[in-house]
Write a structure and sequence with these properties.
Blueprint lengths: L6 H14 L16 H15 L4 E5 L4 E5 L3 H11 L5 H20 L13
Antiparallel strand pairs: 1-2
Helix pairs in contact: 3-4
Length: 121
């Protein structure tokens, strides 16, 4: 019987390895969790791609799983700008402020939005 790991188990192993290290790690260290260099490269490419996408939320019912986009493209762009260490702190702060305002505005349009209102400037 095969003890092959699921995709989720592999992803969790990658992030556990990253969490255990305070320093940047070489890709070759992924061998410790059973990923050869080619597979490691594919996983890292996939992770980087997913991290650039708008966030989603899953709502599970008894018979279905509903996928809800939490962010639009603008939100994802603002989030990336906030995380960009090449920008000044002022630019990053403006990006996160813009992100939060746009996110709250989007949430207010959803049926299941909590009772909040957008703060005044």
């Amino acid at each position: 019987m095969s003890s092959r790991r699921t995709l989720l188990e592999r992803a969790k192993a990658i992030f556990r390895l990253l969490e255990e290290s305070n320093d940047p790690i070489p890709k070759s260290k992924l061998k410790e969790i059973g990923l050869n260099p080619s597979t490691a490269e594919k996983w890292l490419d996939l992770i980087m791609y997913i991290q650039q996408q708008p966030l989603i939320r899953l709502v599970k019912t008894e018979s279905n799983t509903i996928v809800i986009k939490v962010e639009g493209r603008y939100h994802a762009m603002s989030r990336r700008a906030f995380q960009d260490s090449d920008l000044t702190y002022e630019q990053r702060l403006r990006s996160i402020d813009s992100y939060l305002r746009a996110l709250v505005a989007r949430e207010l349009t959803l049926d299941d939005a909590p009772p909040h209102k957008l703060p005044d400037e």
